[in-house]
Design goal:
The complex is a heterodimer of chains A (124) and B (532). Chain A is an all-alpha fold and 124 residues long. Chain A has a single domain, classed as Helix Hairpins. Chain A is built from 4 helices and no strands. Chain B has 3 domains: 120 residues; 153 residues, no CATH class; 228 residues, no CATH class. In chain B, β1 and β2 form a beta hairpin. The chains are: A mainly alpha (124), B mainly alpha (532).
Chain lengths: 124, 532
């Protein structure tokens, strides 16, 4: 292979780490409330991808009761991931609802402007 | 004794309470609290006499199931949780803003906090903390005014981000060990060949927990959440006295889990000392009485962390005991501050005056709590501070702890100025149940101080020698630091510019995230240095 990243490094786990830190960057650098909420979603997406790909084995079969020969897949990460997805969805929903009532009060989506308004009110 | 009871019954009763209308709900909720307190005490006696209780859900083995473990510390924390919730219900149940929704959220929060204290499953911890974060931010925003909306939102986003970091750490840990049970992982931890593979999960998990415990660069959400202008004082109590303790409890468990492979106590010691010094400076430069108390929580959390990571048995137990003591006096202080703010209609400590004449009983409870928090002999704070100091290995550590205590004294001298004053007395009537609640928990500060050695012996099997001479010595030191603190405050600190204007560190979501990233990088780097 000439240059570039070797193909063996492009696996789900490394991609998950990259996605996670992209989300983190969004939290650090974006001033838009909606983008902050999206960044949280991206971060939890990265974690979910990581969990799914943990301990993955080639040609494994679903773990079921009965004598089926072969390698069983690890069932725990999948159960965890479903919970993590549900938690993630509810968190996003709650955050959006909070944002709506905040938007009704302040009329802006910018963190800095909200803080500015708050400081002005405090000085009054 | 079934441990699930403590988690499921509040959730079920809370839901039922939400559905039935009328006055029945409040009676039912109060009865539930009484029952929970009684059962928690029974559970504690059971654990002390018969040993730890272990229950596994979903399987017979703790490797595959979800374990709930109740040892002495968790049993004592259960009593603490149910007791403080009981007091809060006594205090605020008849207030106007307490409706069915509030009771529902409050009871569910109780179940979740108890769950955090009992569970030993990492993923379970994540779910419990995440759900309780949602509930806490709704409680912060409960009165829906503009400041609390912003504060609640900042709290929500930063804490959810922290828990996502924690979950990522758990995922990496799962890859290494294949289990999620803390005790099992601890056993397996010593067989890890390349400990450097643990740096990333350690850094991620500790950053998540560090934000929950409000360690140095990550504390700026705490005063916002605990002292937001319109949050009811019982919410402040639950947050400041109990909910942050959940974070500290997780810190103890997770640090203990990593101990066979990664031991960086000196880093946490430094962070603890810095946190408490910073918290104190910020505390005595506030005008708002609730903000003083909230920043004080930061400094006391730093003190607890200092005790926990000093590396000696005595200071470790001192840190653990301080969790209980801090919960007691901080709840009295917040409840009394709530009563005072309600009557004076201001939060400025320079404007509130003559409290002692207007509300003598409330003032007595508050003075007891202040004596507790400043470490007066015979009060609870002195026992844990004595234990922490007893574990300090060298003079400089001793000096630092004395300085921290001096700072506490100074900021509470500032608070104590509200008692005296020459303004004419107002006709104030505080409701009897509020007075009772405050006095019960205030007298607990004295009782826990007097019964300190017994408490230490029952909880930790540690013999604490408190002779008459020690009391005399402590009394001398206390009087000395009181005098020194008063002189320092009236001659120097009160005249400083930043104290007059009121110093505040106001970080937004972006800055908190950057602080989180910096903390993560710092922690991972120091861990790496300690491993090579």
């Amino acid at each position: 292979m000439k240059g570039g990243i070797p193909i063996k490094f492009i696996n789900a786990q490394n991609v998950a780490i990259i996605i996670f830190f992209i989300g983190f960057y969004g939290l650090c650098a974006r001033r838009n409330v909606i983008k902050t909420i999206i960044s949280l979603g991206i971060m939890s997406g990265g974690v979910i991808l990581y969990f799914v790909s943990v301990n993955r084995q080639e040609n494994s079969i679903p773990p079921m009761v009965g004598d089926i020969p072969g390698v069983y897949a690890d069932p725990l990460p999948q159960a965890l991931v479903i919970t993590a997805i549900v938690v993630g969805i509810s968190v996003t929903a709650v955050a959006l609802i909070m944002f709506i009532s905040m938007y009704h009060t302040y009329g802006t989506t910018n963190w800095l402007k909200i803080r500015k308004m708050l400081n002005e009110r405090k000085q009054k | 004794m079934i441990l699930y009871f403590f988690i499921f019954v509040p959730i079920i009763v809370g839901t039922v309470v939400y559905l039935i209308p009328g006055k029945m709900t409040k009676i039912l909720a109060f009865l539930l609290q009484g029952l929970m307190l009684a059962l928690a005490i029974y559970n504690f006696i059971n654990v002390v006499s018969n040993g730890d209780i272990v229950q596994v859900i979903g399987s017979n083995l703790s490797i595959t199931g979800i374990t709930l473990v109740c040892d002495k510390i968790s049993a004592a924390l259960l009593i603490l949780t149910t007791f403080i919730f009981f007091i809060c219900f006594l205090f605020g149940l008849l207030d106007k803003f307490v409706n069915n929704l509030f009771i529902f959220l409050f009871i569910i929060l109780q179940a979740l906090i108890i769950g955090i204290f009992l569970t030993r499953d990492l993923f379970n911890i994540y779910v419990l903390v995440e759900v309780s974060t949602i509930i806490v931010s709704v409680l912060i925003m409960f009165k829906k005014d503009s400041v609390s909306l912003y504060d609640g939102m900042v709290y929500f986003i930063s804490n959810i981000a922290a828990m996502t970091l924690f979950l990522f750490g758990v995922a990496i840990l799962y890859k290494t060990f294949g289990v999620l049970d803390i005790d099992v992982i601890k056993v397996k931890m010593q067989f890890v060949e390349d400990t450097r593979s643990l740096i990333l999960p350690f850094g991620l998990m500790m950053t998540g927990i560090g934000l929950k415990c409000a360690f140095l660069p990550l504390f700026s959400w705490l005063p916002k959440a605990h002292a937001t202008a319109s949050a009811p004082s019982i919410v402040s109590v639950i947050l400041s006295a109990l909910y942050v303790k959940g974070g500290i409890y997780l810190f103890i468990r997770i640090a203990d889990m990593y101990k066979p492979a990664i031991n960086i106590d000196w880093v946490f010691l430094t962070i603890g000392i810095m946190t408490s010094l910073f918290g104190i400076v910020l505390a005595f430069s506030q005008k708002d009485i609730k903000l003083i108390l909230a920043y004080h929580t930061v400094s006391q959390l730093g003190l607890i962390l200092t005790g926990l990571s000093m590396g000696t048995v005595s200071s470790y137990y001192g840190g653990l005991l301080h969790i209980f003591n801090h919960a007691m006096f901080k709840s009295v202080l917040f409840l009394c501050a709530g009563i005072i703010i309600d009557h004076y209609k201001t939060r400025d400590v320079y404007e509130i005056r003559n409290v002692f004449k207007n509300m003598p009983l409330v003032s007595i409870a508050m003075i007891m709590a202040i004596l507790g928090i400043t470490g007066a002999p015979f009060f609870n704070g002195s026992v844990s501070k004595y234990l922490i100091q007893g574990g300090a290995k060298n003079i400089s550590l001793n000096a630092i702890i004395i300085i921290i205590n001096l700072g506490t004294v100074i900021s509470f001298i500032k608070v104590a100025t509200i008692f005296k004053g020459k303004e004419k007395t107002m006709n104030v009537s505080v409701k009897w149940y509020k007075k009772t609640a405050v006095l019960i928990i205030g007298s607990m500060c004295l009782l826990m101080g007097l019964g300190g050695p017994v408490l230490v012996r029952t909880l930790f099997d540690y013999q604490l020698q408190m002779s008459f001479l020690v009391y005399i010595e402590k009394l001398m030191v206390y009087v000395f630091s009181l005098a020194g603190g008063y002189l320092l405050y009236s001659r120097l600190i009160r005249k400083l510019k930043f104290v007059k204007q009121g110093l505040s560190i106001d970080l937004g979501v972006n800055e908190i995230s950057i602080a989180m990233l910096a903390f993560f990088v710092f922690l991972s780097f120091t861990t790496y240095l300690s491993l090579i």
